[in-house]
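Deliverable D2.4 — example input (structure tokens):
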């Protein structure tokens, strides 16, 4: 058992429903790593000052949430190849005074798809949103050989940026932009909510669309008590992946970066389930 405390935390806004402090607290007795985990609410104004404070206080690293996953990139000294390709950072390791950006959301999605036995190969996929979570999802779907990824977003400019970058990286996957309120393409069988809707703001009716039998529904949002199904996942006839599983997996992958201790594939699923059950007990 390692007794020294690892300083870490989360930056972004809003953080009022964040479960990350409870996840890292639950992780301590299970993994042996003791964390002191702080929340620093910031929407990006004065981000440089926030980062100086974090470095002064000797944090080993920190997680990044909306709306900073893309905005933080110019402030970093280095990017992992994965986060550079995705264009979004959700975990920063501080090593030898340098800020190193990573993307553990992609790793979390990959672990969750694997656990659910879902392969994107050849499938037509819908993503609502075009921010950091959507980029992570598009990356995993295209890396896994998805046939088409339809991006439904309010801001066409943001969707266009995602589509152009990813089309270059993944010439075998088609990327298409659709209006946020457009119905999904008929052949779609993978549906991903990468907006805050259902967690912050009520779920828009167009996101309640049901695909054919056997479709997969993945929600990045999560219930702050980790107990009930989020609105996006309610009444689905198909496989579902919850934002809680993604959140815990990304925290475990982030913990590997901050502590320098890898977690085996078998322990990863076990720890995720143990932490989820602790969160549910309150
Ligand atoms: N479970 C997890 O591990 C996990 C991981 C990552 C993210 N998340 C959650 O996923 C959500 C998205 O995070 P993010 O980092 O991708 O945020 P982000 O980079 O700020 O992107 C947010 C996206 O949602 C869209 N959006 C926001 N409000 C909307 C509304 N009222 N109606 C329609 N679209 C709206 C935005 O559209 P515009 O471009 O048009 O503004 C944008 O595409 C957040 O709730 C976050 O907490 C969870």
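Example output (designed residues):
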């Amino acid at each position: 058992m390692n007794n020294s405390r690892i300083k870490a935390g989360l930056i972004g806004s809003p953080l009022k429903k964040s479960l990350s402090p409870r996840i890292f607290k639950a992780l301590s007795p299970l993994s042996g790593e003791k964390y002191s985990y702080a929340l620093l609410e910031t929407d990006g104004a004065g981000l440089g000052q926030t980062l100086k404070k974090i470095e002064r206080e000797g944090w080993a690293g920190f997680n990044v949430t909306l709306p900073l996953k893309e905005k933080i990139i110019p402030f970093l000294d280095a990017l992992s190849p994965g986060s550079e390709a995705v264009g979004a950072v959700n975990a920063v390791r501080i090593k030898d005074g340098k800020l190193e950006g990573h993307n553990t959301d992609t790793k979390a999605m990959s672990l969750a798809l694997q656990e659910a036995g879902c392969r994107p190969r050849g499938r037509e996929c819908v993503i609502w949103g075009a921010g950091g979570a959507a980029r992570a999802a598009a990356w995993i779907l295209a890396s896994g050989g998805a046939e088409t990824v339809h991006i439904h977003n309010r801001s066409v400019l943001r969707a266009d940026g995602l589509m152009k970058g990813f089309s270059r990286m993944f010439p075998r996957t088609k990327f298409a932009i659709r209006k946020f309120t457009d119905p999904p393409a008929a052949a779609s069988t993978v549906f991903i909510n990468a907006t805050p809707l259902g967690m912050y703001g009520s779920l828009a009716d167009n996101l309640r669309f049901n695909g054919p039998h056997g479709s997969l529904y993945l929600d990045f949002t999560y219930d702050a008590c980790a107990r009930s199904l989020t609105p996006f996942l309610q009444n689905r006839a198909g496989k579902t992946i919850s934002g809680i599983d993604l959140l815990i997996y990304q925290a475990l992958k982030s913990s590997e970066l901050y502590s320098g201790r890898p977690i085996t594939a078998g322990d990863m699923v076990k720890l995720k389930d143990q932490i989820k059950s602790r969160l549910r007990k309150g």
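The first strand starts at residue 5 and ends at 12.
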